[in-house]
């Protein structure tokens, strides 16, 4: 069993999970979960994350929406970028499947699925994963291929800040390559032969963040059967990379600030002062200034982390670098799969250049992987390329006007409305507005409930509750 590749199957239909577990059990070490929360908790408890995941989009508590599936794909990618995720999709869910790929899924499988075809896709994903882990891509390759002005600026900042002892904050969209930039900062510094540790603050249970970072003493909590050092201690004079720093709980932000200020920390359950000389590099896809205003992030920690601030450009701003990345990755994956690389005809290449890649470099890689597998050695037209592109995820130009800045204007608008309506019902009007804004937020965030809740100024559980109430009507 230990020699089999590990596969996580997430679906709330026991008939599907039992069937898949039976059909794939000879070739894979199967783990099964029926919801996003249980799947995330399961993965967090494992010493080694699964190599593969097969995820249904429609999961409880909203099985008729893709929200939970989208969120799970994003969380699994955040927890383990090496994990290859395939999405289970209904026959008519092409748009949802495309968006899941934008979030980081490798491919999608239509329901009902053929066991042998599914096995072939999983084994192919496993080979791709092995090729990526074994190397072969340039150390700086995945992001730093290109010569666009924004990329040259990024390379210059990396060279300038690499040897500094001070913290650095890397900001950029999901999939843009923030961890690659952090790795470059480490490799180009005098610390390159020192330890490197990375922690994704969004991929670990909040209760485990403190013992992971600072260590713990025997008996400090249930399960602490021996003394254990943490990342700050183990990193010594190396680098500690904290990804998704915006997810760090507020109570731990103060402890992190203390380490950054004077190097002091304590293991959980100890009073002894310890010292760390590790350099901290943090990354986020959130606007931390907005998080500070909302009371979710400490201003003093932000200023301490952002001694050097590096902005990773989204792929849509990198111009012709998109074609250079296409050439690099198509060659790389074709060689690893022992296939002839595909090419694009003039129309398809124009489509490639015009596409904005909302999932950035991660999305580009996944598109190349699928095209390499499906069309080895072929010249592709827009007809073959178009289905791979998530057009609905394109950022829209312009912005809709918001409510009147002057409250008197709103009062006058309401007065005119009441004068026109003979049977006005305030509850119905408020419910309609609420439903409209929730639907709008879900569309703008492409089904990501957490982002929609932040956009609406609501708690995630509150938004879930209101969405469930709407579904019952």
Explain this structure.
- It is a single chain.
- It contains 21 helices and 14 strands.
- By secondary structure, the chain is an alpha/beta fold.
- It has a five-stranded parallel sheet with strand order 2-1-3-4-5, sandwiched between helices. The protein has a five-stranded parallel sheet with strand order 7-8-11-6-12.
- Strand 1, helix 1 (14-24) and strand 2 form a beta-alpha-beta unit.
- It starts with 5 loop residues before the first strand and ends with a helix.
Number of helical elements? 21
Please report which band the strand proportion falls in: under 5%, 5-15%, 15-25%, 25-35%, 35-45% or over 45%.
5-15%
Structural class: alpha/beta
Helix residue percentage: 40-55%
Stretches where pLDDT is under 50 for at least 5 consecutive residues are 136-142, 394-406
Average predicted confidence as pLDDT: 85
Shape descriptor reads globular
Number of strands: 14
- The Rg value, from CA coordinates, equals 24 Å
- What's the N-to-C terminus distance? 48 Å
Please give the largest β-sheet.
Answer: 5 strands, parallel
Placed side by side, the strands forming the largest sheet appear as: 2-1-3-4-5
Short description:
It is built from 21 helices and 14 strands. It has 473 residues and is α/β, with parallel strands linked by helices. Residues 136-142 and 394-406 have low confidence and may be disordered.
Topology record:
Blueprint: E1 6-10, H1 14-24, E2 29-33, H2 36-45, E3 52-56, H3 67-79, E4 84-89, H4 94-103, E5 107-110, H5 115-134, H6 141-144, H7 149-161, E6 168-171, H8 178-187, E7 196-200, H9 206-214, H10 231-235, E8 239-243, H11 250-262, E9 264-265, E10 274-275, E11 279-284, H12 288-293, H13 299-305, E12 308-311, H14 321-337, E13 343-344, H15 346-354, H16 360-374, E14 379-380, H17 382-385, H18 407-420, H19 426-444, H20 449-456, H21 460-472
Parallel strand pairs: 1-2, 1-3, 3-4, 4-5, 6-11, 6-12, 7-8, 8-11, 13-14
Antiparallel strand pairs: 9-10
């Amino acid at each position: 069993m230990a020699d089999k590749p590990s596969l996580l199957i997430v679906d709330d239909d026991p008939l599907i999970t039992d069937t898949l577990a039976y059909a794939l059990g000879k070739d894979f070490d199967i783990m099964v979960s029926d919801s996003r929360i249980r799947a995330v908790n399961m993965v967090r408890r494992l010493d080694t994350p699964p190599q593969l995941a097969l995820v249904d989009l429609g999961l409880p508590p909203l099985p008729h929406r893709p929200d939970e599936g989208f969120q799970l794909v994003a969380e699994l990618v955040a927890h383990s970028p090496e994990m290859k995720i395939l999405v289970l999709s209904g026959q008519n869910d092409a748009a949802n499947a495309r968006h899941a790929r934008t979030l980081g899924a490798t491919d999608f499988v239509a329901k009902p699925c053929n066991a042998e075809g599914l096995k072939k896709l999983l084994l192919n994903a496993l080979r791709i994963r092995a090729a990526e882990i074994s190397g072969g891509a340039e150390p700086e390759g995945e992001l730093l291929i290109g010569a666009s002005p924004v990329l040259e600026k990024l390379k210059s900042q990396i060279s300038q800040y690499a040897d500094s002892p001070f913290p650095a904050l890397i900001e950029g969209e999901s999939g843009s390559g923030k961890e690659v930039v952090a790795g470059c900062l480490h490799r180009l510094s005098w610390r390159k032969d020192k330890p490197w540790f990375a922690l994704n603050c969004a991929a670990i249970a909040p209760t485990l963040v403190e013992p992971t970072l600072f260590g713990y003493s025997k008996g400090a909590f249930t399960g602490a059967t021996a003394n254990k050092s943490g990342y700050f201690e183990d990193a010594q004079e190396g680098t500690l990379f904290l990804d998704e720093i915006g997810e760090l709980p507020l109570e731990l932000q103060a402890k992190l600030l203390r380490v950054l200020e004077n190097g002091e920390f304590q293991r959980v359950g100890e009073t002894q002062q310890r010292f760390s000389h590790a350099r901290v590099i943090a990354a986020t896809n959130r606007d931390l200034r907005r998080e500070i205003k909302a009371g979710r992030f400490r201003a003093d920690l932000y200023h301490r982390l952002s001694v050097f601030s590096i902005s990773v450009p989204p792929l849509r701003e990198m111009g012709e670098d998109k074609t250079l990345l296409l050439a690099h990755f198509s060659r790389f994956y074709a060689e690893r799969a022992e296939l002839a690389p595909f090419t694009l005809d003039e129309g398809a290449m124009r489509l490639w250049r015009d596409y904005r890649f909302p999932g950035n470099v991660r999305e580009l890689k996944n598109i190349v992987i699928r095209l390499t597998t499906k069309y080895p050695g072929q010249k592709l037209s827009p007809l073959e390329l178009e289905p791979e592109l998530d057009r609905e995820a394109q950022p829209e130009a312009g912005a809709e006007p918001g409510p009147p800045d002057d409250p008197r204007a709103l009062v006058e608008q309401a007065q005119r409305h009441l004068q026109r309506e003979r049977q006005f019902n305030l509850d119905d009007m408020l419910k309609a507005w609420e439903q409209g804004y929730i639907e709008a937020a879900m569309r703008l965030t492409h089904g990501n409930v957490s982002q929609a809740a932040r956009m609406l100024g609501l708690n995630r559980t509150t938004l879930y509750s209101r969405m469930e109430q709407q579904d019952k009507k």
